[in-house]
Amino acid sequence: MGFVRALFLLAMVCVAAHAKDYPKEEGAKAEGPATASGGGGGSTHDVLKLGGKGDGKTDSTKAVNEAWTAACAGTGKQTIVVPKGDFLTGPLNFTGPCKGDIVIQLDGNLLGSTDLALFKSNWIEIMHLESLEISGKGKLDGQGAAVWSKNSCAKKYDCKILPNTLVLDFVNNGLISGISLVNPKFFHMNVFKSKNITIKDVTITAPGDSPNTDGIHMGDSSKISIIDTVIGTGDDCISIGPGTEGVNISGVTCGPGHGISVGSLGRYKDEKDVTDVTVKNCVLKKSTNGVRIKSYEDAASVLTASKFTYENIKMEDVANPIIIDMKYCPNKICTANGNSKVTIKDITFKNITGTSSTPEAVSLLCSDKLPCTGVTLNDIKVEYSGTNNKTMAVCKNAKGTATGCLKELSCF
Questions:
Q1: Residue 185 sits in the same domain as residue 264
Q2: Based on the domain organization, do 176 and 261 belong to the same domain?
Q3: For site-directed labelling of 156, which of 47, 228, 255, 373 has its Cα 20 to 30 A away?
Q4: Are residues 261 and 198 in the same domain?
């Protein structure tokens, strides 16, 4: 999501011995203690036993928050269990620091209330943790379709931001695996000021026309890995914001969506550099962009985007498979004065294959005042899938080398 600032701002230990305590009917009140001692000084906190109802209608916010409070106060491994069922909640603010290691076992589904009056900011905020694990086969369902019509961000910058589904803010050493995120009100996931976060085997789903439903956005964070994840949404599948370094994206399938993007960069003052980004072994299907770097032409910050590698990427009918856009201006609500302050350099595109739904398979649209430098095109073989037009590269103010590419895409 290019024109919204990175916003400030949940695994795998479910004690099998407690499985028999779950009631057979969803929503029935369980017998036994709500919190049970686990091995190694840890405890398990069952949302159902704390009064949650898995009927999809009863507000279970209090039960989920009670589970968090108890878990955060405990030592050792603390497991919050969301059992099978549909648990409706309002905002969930999970703030640390906590005494132990937090695990959220999502076996059932959490549903975000559609009453926007309940939310001051986001739906699920997890803040100030040193160890977090979220796993299971359940879903975080933002139920966003009910409120997407209230999104006015395509028309103005100072729009009211709808709640993101899952926010990690100042979280270090996190693993999110197996779960699904569907139909957020705004972003599915937002990672801010966090370090050593792995997102693996996650499924993210929203309609292609849903507004600002970025899959995974990150900003001011480091050592972020996104692995073997499937994302189909209405905005960027993955967006990498300012101040981010050490990003590894591998085995990701994107589509529909706006592609895997760096930026947008330069919208605000004091933005930090983006460096050391690797995207490899990915597939993009019918997305509006493939791999993209975007910065505002009237950038307010002086910053550098550098050391990016895009390798072994397959495009399937992608509109802009390879694009650097230093004249980014969403919905024409910015000023195009050509005074770019963003430096883009040392970018490698290697073994990018497949088809483009537009003739322009490669677009390097750099600034005349700050040209892109050190751009490498190696084995770029993306062909236009339509008729009556030839595959082409459009390159402006870009300097680099091209080897092993289709003749039409050599660019330099």
A1: no
A2: no
A3: 255
A4: no
360 versus 268: which is more confidently predicted? 360
Residue by residue, DSSP assigns 183-239 as --SS-SEEEES-EEEEEES-EEE--TT-TT--SEEEES-EEEEEES-EEE-SS-SEE
Q: What is the DSSP string of 32-70?
A: S-SEEE-GGG-EEEETTTTT--TEEEEE-HHHHHHHHHH
> Domain holding 255: CATH number?
2.160.20.10
Residues 192 and 281 in one domain: no
Where residue 374 falls (left for φ over 0; alpha for ψ -120 to 50; beta otherwise) is: left
Mean of the per-residue pLDDT values of the chain: 89
Contacts for 384-390 with beta carbons within 8 Å, 24 or more apart?
384/355, 384/356, 384/357, 384/358, 384/359, 385/317, 385/355, 385/356, 385/357, 386/357, 386/358, 386/359, 389/359, 390/359
Q: In 286-359, where do the E strands start and end?
A: 291-296, 303-318, 322-328, 342-356
Structure confidence by residue, pLDDT tens digits, 276-288: 999 999 999 999 9
Strand partners, 372: 398
- For 103-152, the pLDDT digits (tens) are 999 999 999 999 999 999 999 999 999 999 999 999 999 999 999 999 98
Looking at the structure, tell me whether residues 261 and 388 fall in a common domain. yes
Cβ 358 vs Cβ 320: under 8 Å: yes
Helix (H, G, I), strand (E, B) or coil at 409: helix
Per the domain annotation, does 243 fall within a domain? yes
Active site residue 128: no
Percent of the chain past pLDDT 70, that is, above it, reads 88
**What value does the mean pLDDT take over residues 351-357?**
98
- Answer with the residue of higher pLDDT: 410 or 8: 410
Q: Judge residue 208's burial from the number of C-beta atoms within 10 Å of its C-beta, 0-12 exposed, 13-18 middle, 19 or more buried.
A: middle
Instruction: Give the domain extent around 54.
Output: 48-146+165-206
pLDDT at 158: 74
Stretch 394-411: mean pLDDT: 94
Do the domain assignments include residue 200? yes
> Tell me, what's the pLDDT at 20?
30
Model confidence at 22: pLDDT above 80: no
Question: How many domains in the chain?
Answer: 2
> Looking at the structure, do residues 278 and 366 belong to the same domain, yes or no?
yes
311 belongs to a structural domain: yes
Taking residues 190-198, report their average pLDDT: 98
Distances from the Cα of 123 to the Cα of 181, 239, 334, angstroms: 12, 20, 30
pLDDT at 317 over 70: yes
